[in-house]
Amino acid sequence: MEAEGCFHISIFKSKTSKYGEAVKLSFILTQNVRDKDLMNSLIEYLGCGYTTLENRGTIDFKVTKFSNIKDVIVPFFKKYPLQGVKSLDFGSFCKAVDIVANKGHLSKEGLDEVRIIKNEMNTNRKF
User: Pick from 112, 6, 114, 25: which is nearest to 68 by CA?
Assistant: First the structure.
C-alpha cells in the first residue's frame, strides 16, 4: 500500500485564547477511495480517528484529538519508525506535541516556537 500522509500543525485565530491564536495538531493519511475499507479499518486498529471522503476521489484518515495524537499516533510511529524525509517531519511534530502537552503553546514564546516548527516542516523543509 502506498499512501500520502502528513503530520500537520495548524495555527488559527481564536477569540478564547490569550494571544488570539490556538494550535491544532493532526495526522492525515490519504488513499484512493477504492481503499475505503482499509482506511476505515485503521479506526478500529488504532482505536481513534475518522475518515472523510474527498472530492478528488480520495479518502482521508484523520486523527485530530490531541490525546489520540499524543497517546496513539506518536507511540505508533516511535515503535514503527518512518524512513526518509517523513521521519524528519515526525521528529518536528513530536517537538510540537511536547510543547502542547506541557501547555507551552499557551505562552507567547511557546506559540512562537510551535510556529517556527510548523514553518520548517513538510513542503517548507530545507535540507
Answer: 25
